[in-house]
Amino acid sequence: ITRHSEPVSQINGTIEEIFFYLNNIIALAFLLYFAVLYVIEMRNMQRNLRVENVELEEQANYDKLTHLLNRNAMAKYFEDAIALSERDNKDFCILMLDIDDFKKVNDTYGHDCGDEVLKTVARVITDDVRQGDAVFRWGGEEIVVLIRSDLKVATSVAHRICNHIAGAVTTYQNKNIKVTITIGVAAFIKGMTMDELIKQADVKLYYGKKHGKDQVV
Question: Which listed residue (6, 52, 141, 196) is catalytic?
Fold first, then answer.
């Protein structure tokens, strides 16, 4: 009986070829694995960066306590409103609001209670304005509202806010605290600056404070 067998060199060559392809497959698998890890890591970094950017924007443009826009953000909103008014005759007004006797709240119940009252007032105002309007914490207990409409509509909104805040209740340590606000309303006239408009509203607010409070001027 004659047996035919492959030469040893051919067998060795086949084994080497198998190892060659196997090594390539393993190397490719490792490359794909690390490539996937890299893509996942890059996406995580991008997501974290977006979150950080949002947080930085909030810190730069929003009041931490009330979550209203802050004074830093006002300039851009006013510039846009003034540009629209000058170019397209789009009316806008501002409301300057101040919580009446707010110092008495802080002195009687403490500053933590005052903070809760501020949050309540901010929430009521935000609920009472339209989506295109903007609410800013001016400082302390003063709030500015940009109303993208004429004086008649702005005054109506001011009265609604005034009434709703008078009816709102802040509950703090089993105590119900109610406050009122005074509002000065000013309409933008072409040629005005932001500072001039705010000053006009502030003068009306001061007048309301001196003449009974809890009113719209």
Answer: 141
